[in-house]
């Protein structure tokens, strides 16, 4: 496979261990089209991402209806996204002190603002 365009980013030190009660937050990156296999090495492509926390992955996508575009999938399960998606890599982005219930409440509130019919 071609090198990831993410390899162009500076390397960070290994993530520190979480404090008690914290949960890891991970960005999962997906190729959206087969053309990325040829273009991602040059740092360009069409990508989708989701944020994984507490064993769930949350993402945003468009549809023609006036309700939330925020959705939950099984982490790194490209099949749930559709046949044109391919999982590329995960990037550890930090930790959260929010509980699973608090994350779900926050995602629900964000979903009111990020409707599917407003996806650009």
From TrEMBL:
Protein keywords: Hydrolase, Protease
InterPro entries for the chain: PPPDE_dom (IPR008580), PPPDE_sf (IPR042266)
Lineage, uppermost ranks: Eukaryota, Metazoa, Ecdysozoa, Arthropoda, Hexapoda
GO biological process: protein deubiquitination; proteolysis
Sections of the chain in a coiled coil: none
GO molecular function, a single term: deubiquitinase activity
Keyword Transmembrane helix among record annotations: no
Protein's recorded name: Uncharacterized protein
Superkingdom of the organism of origin: Eukaryota
Ranges annotated as spanning the membrane: none
The family this protein is said to belong to: Belongs to the DeSI family.
Species this chain originates from: Danaus plexippus plexippus
Keyword Protease: yes
